[in-house]
Amino acid sequence: MVLHERVAPKLRIVDVINTAAAAKEILVDRVRHFHRPPAIENWIVCSAGEHVELLRAQGLPVAVVDTPRGLEPGALARATWRLTRLFRSLAPDLVHTHSSVSGAVGRVAARAAGVPVVVHTVHGFHFHEGSRLPARLFSWATERALAAFTDMLLTQNREDLQAVRRWRGVRARLVGNGIDVPRFARLARRHSGPGRVVACIARFEPVKNHHDLLRVFARVRAVCPQARLRLIGDGALRPQYEREAAELGIASATEFAGYRADVSVLLEDVDVAVLLSWKEGIARGLLEPMAAGIPVVAWRVKGNREVVRSGKSGLLAPPGDLEQTTAHIVRLLEDPALRNRMGAAAAERVHRQFNEAAIVARLAEVYASLLGAAGRALPVSWEQSHDQRTVLSA
């Protein structure tokens, strides 16, 4: 690829993630905060996709390197080689990887290219309760081995941090996850009368488990025939879920809203938000509706347990328990006073614990410490932008 013809920045950071859609969902706000040319560049490296140009339209430098979603050895080797070449060309001071496969090839490539600092964020380890033992053991062994290529592992929840701290010689820190709270807080409203709109914010991937969500909603419709389901997100499994909705007889009550940059607009009339993932880091699909004062129903899995105080800011059900999940949704739809009470508690909790500004400050502190230890001088603009007085405690 051809780099811009200009004087090299004093500091270059590269974030590596599997898809441009994931980058839009997870990285954009933070990258915009750090990207302050000409002194600081923050690149995004991701696979090709329709969202690449959306990222570039926001003035962010993007390099396209396709990383596989599976574990085919040849594809992994090719992705690692391409990333190694890119890193040698870009000469970043710090590479920050995300997701499982892109995190694996990205870290190996960064070390092969001689990148001074390598950081990886765990968006929920795959060795979690409910996963099959062979898969759990493979994931654990892989992540343990990859930790050797990493200067710092960052976790979003305390359970993943505890897992990492059992590994000798591995540095880890809880950074958490957050959202732009004011963007959603403006939606906070009081509920009156029976609820009708149930929403789910999640990519169409197996781990997000729309399969069971559709079955739960079919049961909800049997009790609350006016209920509607809004699915906010997109992905390769969308056609399959559209077929499943038709087979369950709920197609006319199910809205496939697709990917939307303005998620907050789609939450304006939502009464209950649902997320039935098998595992999470800290899910934005819970934080965003909660910040808008919408009570949530989720499964009691790693990550969700840290976000939702069941009975206070939402309701948790055991993973796989469709009957209790249905009962929780129906209960909230039928009780506006309960929705108001839990919605207010949810908004307060997100504002206090999951504000993006605090997460960026923690990340800036980690970057500064690691870059300093690697002998990388920070530009003056960094010190001005990341005054340590803004750093909040984890």
Write the layout of secondary structure elements.
Blueprint: E1 11-16, H1 20-26, H2 28-34, E2 40-46, H3 52-57, E3 62-64, H4 73-90, E4 94-98, H5 100-112, E5 117-122, H6 133-146, E6 152-155, H7 158-164, E7 172-174, H8 181-185, E8 197-201, H9 210-223, E9 228-232, H10 238-247, E10 254-258, H11 263-266, E11 272-275, H12 284-291, E12 296-299, H13 304-307, E13 314-317, H14 322-334, H15 336-353, H16 356-373, H17 380-385
Parallel strand pairs: 1-2, 1-4, 2-3, 4-5, 5-6, 6-7, 8-9, 8-11, 9-10, 11-12, 12-13
Distance between the termini: 39 Å
Sequence stretches where pLDDT stays below 50 over 5 or more residues: 1-6, 388-394
Quote the CATH topology of the largest domain.
Rossmann fold
Alpha-carbon Rg, integer: 21 Å
Give the amount of beta strand, in percent: 15-25%
Query: Largest sheet, if any?
Result: 7 strands, parallel
User: CATH top level of the largest domain?
Assistant: Alpha Beta
The side-by-side strand order for the widest beta sheet comes to 3-2-1-4-5-6-7
The geometry reads as globular
- CATH 4th-level superfamily of the largest domain: Glycogen Phosphorylase B
CATH architecture name of the largest domain: 3-Layer(aba) Sandwich
